[in-house]
Structures are given as C-alpha cells and as structure tokens.
Amino acid sequence: MSDDKNTSNAIPAAATPEPFSPVILRHIHEEGSHTLAHYLARGGYETAKSKMGTDPQAIVQTVIDSGLRGRGGAGFPTGKKWSFLAKGTGKPIYLAVNGDESEPGTFKDRHILEKDPHQLLEGVILTSYAIGSHHAFIYLRGEFILGYERLQQAVDEAMAKGFIGKKIFGGDFDLTVTVVRGAGAYICGEETGMLSSIEGGRGYPKIKPPFPAVSGAFGCPTIVNNVETIAAVTHIVKHGAAWHKQWGTEMSPGFKIFCLSGHVNKPGVYEVPLGIPLTEMIEVYGGGMRGGVKLKAVIPGGLSAPVLTAAQVADVTLDYESLAKAGSMLGSGGITVLDENVDMISAIYNTMRFYHHESCGQCTPCREGTGWLEKLAHRFHHDEGREGEVDLLGDVAKNMRGRTICVLADAAAMPMQSYLQHFRADFEARVKAASWKERTRSYKDEITPKAKASAKVRTENP
Amino acid sequence: MKTLSSTRLEKAEAYLTEYPTKRSALLMVLRLIEEEFGHIDDEGMAIAADLCEVTTAHVQGMVTFYTHYKRPYHGKHRFMVCATLMCALDGNTDEALSAIKAKLGIGPGEKTTDGLFSCEKVECLADCDRAPVVQKDNEHFCSMKGEKLEGYIDGLLQSEGKSAADYKNEGPVRMDSRVQTLPVHFNFDGENTRGARRLDDKDPYLPPRNTTEKPRG
User: Fold this and answer.
1) Residue from B129, B173, B201 whose CB has the most chain A CBs within 10 Å, to mutate
2) Contact A122, A47 (CB under 8 A)
3) From A211, A251, A319, B131, which residue has the greatest number of CB atoms within 10 Å?
C-alpha cells in the first residue's frame, strides 16, 4: 500500500474542487444516448482520435497519476495493474472487460451498457492502445439482453466508422473488439473465471499466480478491468489526472457509481465523489428510509460485503479505507438498505443459498462449506437451530476463508461472520424457538391438515 | 437430424474466425443453436461440438454449468423470477411467484402439462432497485408483480389460444430433477415476507417427523 501512496501523491489534488456533477452517467436519461450520433454530438471519440500516434506510456502514466482504483470490487489501482503487464513475451496481449456484474445489489454496468455503450468503447480503444492490445473482449452476463444488443450495435457502428477494426482513425493501430455473452454464472465475474469462460470452458477460476497480466486468456498476458473502470478511463484521459483527483479522498480519489436498493424512498444509481458519508447517500440521494421506518443494517458493497449495523453506518464514509476500517468493504458499490422489519436470519439464509448455488465446485472448502452454511442457516430460518450450531456456523465460515482458488468462499464466509458478530442474539433466539417447536411439533403434525397434505404431495412427486 | 440454417451457419463461421480458438466461440455458438431450435438438446450439442471441435461431453458440461441456456425440459415460455435478497425483501419474489401460480398453476421448478409454460427461481438478475425482476426467455421486466405480471401472462395465454381456466385443474409437472436451477428444498413459501414471519409458520418441505422419534439435542 505504501507504493500506492507514493504514486497517488505524484500529482496534488486541486485546492478547490469543482462542484461535482455526474460524469459517466451524465447522459443516460437523454433520448437516444446509446447511439453513435448522440455520442459524436457531445464530442465522442475525439480523445481516442487525438491520442492515436502519441506515446502509449503517457496514457498509462495519466491513469497511474489519477489514482483510479478498480471499480469491480477489489479496488486495485488500475494504472499499477497495467504496469504489471508482461512485456516482450512475443505473445499477443488481450484486454478483457468484465461486464458480468453478478454481485447481487449491483446494477451500475447495466446502465453504462444499455444507455451509453460508446463511452465504454472509447475507453476500450484508449486502454487497448495504452497496453498495446489488438484484441479486446467485453464479457457480458447472459441476462443482459438489451445491454448485449446495444453494445453489439455500438461495436458495429464504430466499426463502420473506422473507429475500431483495421487501422483505426486512419492510423496504424489495429483493434478487434469482441462482445462475449455469458450464460448465467456468478463465478464468471471473478477475473480468472471470466477468462476460462472466454476460452470456451466452464467458468472455473484459475489459481493465482500467475496473474492474468502475466498469463491470462489463452495463456497470453491479459488485462482485466471492470466496465465502470474502463468508462472512467475515457474521462480521465480526456480531462487529465489532476481533474480526477480533485474529488474523493487521498487514497480513494475520484468518483464512483453507487447502486442503492432496499428500503429507501428513491433506489437507483447515483454517481458521487468518493468519501461522502453513507448517511448522506441514504438520506439525500436515497430520499431517506421508506415509510420512515428505523434503519437496521446496511450491506455496503454487494451481497458479499460484511453487513454494517445502524450504529456503524453513522461513522462510515463511502471510500475504500473507511469501509475497510469499519470491517466491511466498498466492493462493487451495491448498497442495500435494510429496515427494522427485516428478519436477519431470513436474510442470511437467502444469502447463503445464493453462494451455495453459485459455488463452481472446484475447491472442497467452498463447495462443501457453502452447503453447510446454507443448510445450517436453513435450519435457523425454520427455528430448527440446535445448541452449539451458532458456533458451528462461525467455525465453518472461518475455515472457508483463504483456503480456495478464488474468493467466492470468502465472499460467502464474510457476510456470515458479520451477521454472527452483529446479530448473534437473533441466531440464539432461534435456538430457543427451536426447542419450543420441538416440544409442540407432534401435536401440531397431528392436527394440521395442510402439513399432512404437503407431506403427501412430497412422497408422490419427489 | 437437425441442421443450422445457412444465415446462422454463416454467423457461426464468423464467430469461429473472430475468436482466437474455435473452442472459445462455443458460448456464442450455443446461443445461435438456442435461437435456431428454441432450446439446446443433444442434437444441438452435437452440432456445437462439431463446429467448435470439442467433445460433446465438453458441450454438455457447458450447458449444465451455465444456467441461462434453455433446455428441452423448460417450457416454451420460461419464466425466471429473481429470488436473491434484494428482490426477495418485502416478499416481492413471492408476489411474482404467486401471480404465476394463480394464472398457470405452476410453482418454481414446475411446468404445465402441455409444456407451454415453466417457472423457476433464479439468482440475481442485476436490476435490484426495481424488484421483483422477472425474465421471460429473452425479455426482461422490472417491478413485475400484481396487475402488470397478470396482464402480461394473459397476453401470452391469448397468443397461445389458452386461458387461465385451462390450467385450473391440471397438476403441474416437475422439471428434470437432476438438472434444475435451484434444488427443490429451496422452494418454500413465506421467504422474507417482510416482518410477517411468525413462530407458527410451517415448513411444508421438511420431512414429516416421526412422532415416536425422540426429540433431538
């Protein structure tokens, strides 16, 4: 981390920042914002055109200086990632843009792909030029139907204009852009899982190292970036590093799109400077709690982020460091607000079911661990929890972390651990409820016709 | 023996040359097969295997790993209802499912006896601010519950020359139990109905307890 500090200090932030207005999402509400004509009318592709023939390293340096951090979840400095690219291997270099966006609670890339795909393409051109890649893949999840159509249309339009293809902008740089449509797998949002999928296999993550920058898609050096990161590159190259650094905090400069869902009055996507208080996001942008119900918890960075309690929410600001300090993470920026009426056991059961379903099955701690957590949570959800199982949940979660190829096991264990930490009483209440249910069950089974009827259906139709 | 139409075959050839290896075009070739035949069955898999020069076993591995491909056991109209936390809050998922159940008589994991409609719970469809999210094949709908969903199903029924009454007395058929989007025990009523969970809620999916069995623990 000390290296990041040095690089991001190279260019000081402007003393008085301009008032922020959305950058990436600025035009999404305009009619026809996804078309080439609309994009060209607002100065589109000018930056890419002007950078052709210049020193690619200058673009990399601008992105390093801007302090841009990956928007997909991990928050790794983008420019630094580019500089890790293996050089002189004689192999082609690939750019893979991650538009899988499978983290529940996140829906920012959908808006970029459906409403402004050309700014993404310009970012792809700039990034490819900077890293010397002649083939870029944009991987979309299979469920993005409109997004795929619009992006493919954008690629075709740009190709017809000569912005991508052979000798782009009349220069001597060739670039092929391939849009890959996935088919429904959370794990393909993991960078190496996505590369496996692009290679035409099941989305199995690969062990790191070697990192994709050394050996990625088809065994060649590959840079993997999120859709939002690449869209931000377009604007950073256009306006410069200092422009980007005027917003945000020292360690988390710039702006980010947050996806607000759950019990707020105005859920949706909001692009804001990093470092604003989480309460401001909920109260000002989200329009406050729906129905004025008291806040119970916030999941700040997609479903895998550890949950924050109402007490913690007051002190947290939306940047990578503040959330890490609070024991959670900024992740992909998917903020889910839960009000007082939410049953946290039900919520964690749903969460665990998700991870059990989406585990790819390569590593035993994840394949079995997510199953264990889901089954145990299922039991608590139905008041069937037993003495000692609250500790067992924590034990299983602890033993899943850091023992697998990718971070899906951690993504499943982290919310479980945080729920146990903050809502342990809820779990324990279900143990007591279980013993109550145990005592009354035989009586209820006898007198409830519905239970009997469902038992009959089950045996007939296994 | 099925074959791809010439336009789709051309498109497939274009994919095969655009991608660095033939195998890597498989995801997109499978989409073409899905488009052509409506779903991916064994013959479709064999065509994809031939085109991409991989084994049919590999193709089968792909179509069973990825959940979004349409398989023969799905209905002609395939409803996918998001059941992940953000949609399930406030019982939105349940509302969508019960609307489908009321009109077509099918719950998650089931299809109608005539094979026209099927319903399943799926995981996050990435439009969490407008719950519940429902997809019908290649159509995407937000805030899809109540009248909006019912009206849509009515339109579908009309286009098929059916009415909701046709499905009133028919029992649903369970889809292939080996390959299913979410296992059977995931499908139960009352999940996350906001604050409505009561201690006497019954779980119809737990096996009936032998009354002579000693209490556990």
Assistant:
1) B129
2) yes
3) B131
